C-alpha cells in the first residue's frame, strides 16, 4: 500500500471513529471537545472531511477564511446565542484570527447532544501570542510582543484533560473512555418544558406573588430563558396582565425568551425585535436598562399589576435592580451562575441583603438539570476547566485569623500554579457583575498589569488588579485631546484628555484600578483600603504620578473611594445602556507633579459640575449628587444666603427665588455630619437645587416637602451657638 493510500486510510478511519463517537455521545445525550493540533492546511483538510462525511445538524465554522459555509468570524460567535449546532469547528490558527476565548465560551453552549466541538490549533500552541491578542495590546505594544501565558496554560490543560479527544494529522484520534452512562432524565408532565427543574420554574413565574420576587439561578444550558418565555406566554394568554416587560444587558441575551414565545404562539406577531403581540392584544416588550430607568422616572412603566422579568441579572448593578424592586410588584430575576454573561454567584452574594431588606419574602429557585445535554457532559466539564467558568470561591478566614500584609503576585508564577490561579480568579468573578473568558487572558498577558493579594496563595481573601496608563508624548496627547487620534487602551487617561481637554492627563503616568475584590467573609474589614495603600506606595516608588479608578456612579462605591482620599475628576453624561448607570472617574496624586495634574482636572470638573447637573446629569441619582457636590469649593454661607434660607424654611418665600442660596446650603451641608434623616433631607435638597427635581408630583406638596428638608438641615448645622442664635 502506498504512503498516500495509507494516509487516506488513516483519514477515513479517523472520520469513522469520530462519527461513531458522536453517535455514542448522542445516546448518552453528551457532547465532547476534539482538539486537532497541527499544521493549518492539514488540520483544515481533516476538519472539512469530518464536516462533509455526513449531514450534521446546522454545522458552523468559526474563523476567518473558512473553506466551508456557514461560517462566522470569532467576534460574531455571540450572535449564535439561542441556536443549536451538532458540529462546530473553531479554527485558532493565526491566519484564521487566532483564539478568541469569548467565542469558545459562547459557542460551547450551542452544541446539542451528540455534538462535537472541533478546536484547531498549531503544533506549538502556547509558545507565542496569536493575532487575537491585538484586542489587549494597549499602545504602544504590538500583539506579537506580548507574553502567551494564557495560551500555554490552555495547551497544558488540554494535554492533561481526560474529557477531550486528541487528534493530530497522520494518526488516529485518541478517543479515551466515556464514563458510565448517567441515569435517564425524568420528563415533566408539562409538555412545554424539558426538565422537572424548568417546569418548576415556569410554575413559580406564572404564580408570582405581589412583593415576593423570584430569583432564578442556573448554569448555562439549563433552560432558564426558555422558562421565562413559557411563563410570559401563559401570563399573557391567560390575561393575568396585558403586558410583560423583559430586560437584560442587551437584546441578544433575551433572544431565547422571544424564540420560545414565537414557537408557542404561531398566531402572534413579532412586530419588532423588541416587541411581540398576542391575538388578544397583550404584548411582551423588551426595554433596555437605561430606557427602563427613564420610563420609571416619567411614570410610564411600573406600578400596580405590572410584571418585570430580568434575564442575566448578574450583569446589572444591584443598585439598579433595587430600584426595580420598588417599582414592579411582580418581579423575577434570572441569571447564569457562571459564564461570560456574569457571575450569578456574585450576584446572589451582593444582592441578597437588598432583597432581605426590601422584600423579605423573596424566593430562590435553582435549575440544576441541563436541557440540551445530560449531566456529567464532557464538553461542559472541559470548558469549565479551560475557561475557569466555575472558578471556586476560596474559603473565608481559613488559616487566616488576622489578614497579613499584601504582596505582589508575579504572573509567571500564577500562570503555572492552577491551585493559586483558580481561587484568585474565582474571587474576582464573584465580586464583579461583568466577567468574560477574555478577562483571564487579560489578567495573565495584558501589558502593564499588576496583581496584589492579601491571604495565602491558594486562599486569597482580597485581590487588586491594576494596569498602567498614560506616558504619551506631548504631540500624541495633543492629537488625542483634539479628537484626531485614539490609540488602543489607556481608558481613563484618554477619556480625561478627550472629554476634559487635559493634555497632561495623557503625558502623566497612571496606574488604574481594574478590579478590587474582597471575600464576602472579610468585607468592611479594611482589606480594600490596605490593598490600595500598599499598591499606591509601590506605584509612587516606581515614579507613577496618578492613581485612578472608574466605575458606575453608585453612592456606596463613591463613599469608599472618597474615604480612601480620591477626588472625582469626571462624570459621564449618558447612562451606560447595559447597566443604566453613569460612569464616574476618581483619582489621587502620588507626587507633586501628579498633584498639579489632579488640581487641573479637579478644577475643570468643578467648573462643569453645576451646569452638568442642571442639564445632562439631571437624572443622576440624588444620593450620588449629594456626594459629588462636596467637590465644589468650600465657602461659608453669607448673611444674605442665611436670610434666604430662613425665609424658605420658616416663612413663605418661593424656593425658586432663593435657588442660589439653597444651592449654597446643599453644597456646605455636604460636609456636615448629618443624621440619617439629615442625609435624606440633603439628598432631596441637592436634587431640587441643582437638578430641578421636584420632591412630589403636586407642586404644593413638593414645596412643603422642600421647606421641611431645609428646616431639617438648618437644625443640624454645625455652627457656634452665637451663629445659631442669630
CATH evolutionary superfamily of the largest domain: Gcn5-related N-acetyltransferase (GNAT)
Using the alpha-carbon principal axes, give the shape: globular
Task: Return the average pLDDT rounded to an integer.
Answer: 91
Number of helices: 26
- What percent of residues are in strands? 15-25%
Q: What would CATH call the class of the largest domain?
A: Alpha Beta
| Extended strand count | 21
Q: Give the CATH topology of the largest domain.
A: Aminopeptidase
Please state the CA-atom Rg, rounded to the nearest Å. Answer: 29 Å
Helical content band: 40-55%
What is the correct CATH architecture of the largest domain?
A: 3-Layer(aba) Sandwich
Structural class: alpha/beta
Total domain units: 4
Give the low-confidence spans: 340-344
Query: Biggest sheet, open or closed, and with what strands and sense?
Result: 8 strands, mixed
Through-space gap between termini:
111 Å
Physical arrangement of strands within the biggest beta sheet: 9-10-11-8-12-13-7-14
What does this structure look like?
A hairpin with a 6-residue loop joins strand 20 and strand 21. The chain starts with a helix and ends with a helix. 42% of the residues lie in helices and 17% in strands. With 726 residues, the protein is α/β, with parallel strands linked by helices. The strands form 3 sheets. It has an 8-stranded mixed sheet with strand order 9-10-11-8-12-13-7-14, sandwiched between helices. A 7-stranded mixed sheet has the order 15-16-17-18-19-21-20, with helices on both faces. Strands 3-2-4-5-1-6 form a 6-stranded parallel sheet, sandwiched between helices. It folds into 4 domains: 6-123 and 161-167, Rossmann fold (3-Layer(aba) Sandwich), CATH 3.40.50; 196-367, Rossmann fold (3-Layer(aba) Sandwich), CATH 3.40.50.300; 406-629, Gcn5-related N-acetyltransferase (GNAT) (Aminopeptidase, 3-Layer(aba) Sandwich), CATH 3.40.630; 634-723, no CATH class. The protein is built from 26 helices and 21 strands.
